[in-house]
Amino acid sequence: MTRRGSYAKGIAKREEILTVALDLVARQGFRRTSIKDIADAVGLTQAGLLHYFDSKDDLWVEVLRRRDEIDNTTEWDAADPAELLAAIVRHNAEVPGLVQMFVNLSAAAATDSEHPAHEYFRERYASSRRNLAADFRVMQEDGRLRPDVDVEQLTSVLLAISDGMQIQWLYDPSRDMAEHVELVAQLAIARASTATAPS
């Protein structure tokens, strides 16, 4: 019984750490949030905090996973996958610290297959491409997307625009990330009037 109670407490503490870390990074920024900041906020030493994770980078990856879980359970006001992606990107502008974390870790993980975030990003891109492409196929069947558009390529391009604009936005916050995602989608999505217009 003691072991089970201790295990439950460990899970609860880990959840608290992730919640606090996500909040601190979102508010303070990725570079301004230290392991010490998080440890202090949850009443642990730095060594005590890292007892719950394999490494500092593993903690950051788990924070990104937590952010994804929240995004996946959010009710976004979006009529199609491109609008959904634009809505998420628009939301990201409100949490610049998480954008900083995403950009930093994705660059590090892309160039190092041993990086703790490498598998997270590989799986995330595969899952995003699979889900968005499936939704775009439904749109093609409904006549809301041009039939000559390759949905796999469209999905990859939209993800590239989304991630690339986040980098540009970190340099120049006046850039509207979501607007650029929407622009590319508009080139591919068939409007009812044009879809039925005589050639």
UniProtKB/TrEMBL annotation:
InterPro entries reported in the protein's UniProt record: BetI_C (IPR039538), Homeodomain-like_sf (IPR009057), HTH_TetR (IPR001647), Tet_transcr_reg_TetR-rel_C_sf (IPR036271)
Gene3D superfamilies xref list: Tetracycline Repressor, domain 2 (1.10.357.10)
Protein name: TetR/AcrR family transcriptional regulator
Keyword Transcription: yes
UniProt keyword annotation of Transcription regulation present: yes
DNA-binding region: 34-53
Domain HTH tetR-type: 11-71
Species in which this protein is naturally found: Curtobacterium citri
Pfam families given in the database record: TetR_C_6, TetR_N
PROSITE patterns, per the entry: HTH_TETR_2
Swiss-Prot/TrEMBL keywords: DNA-binding, Repressor, Transcription, Transcription regulation
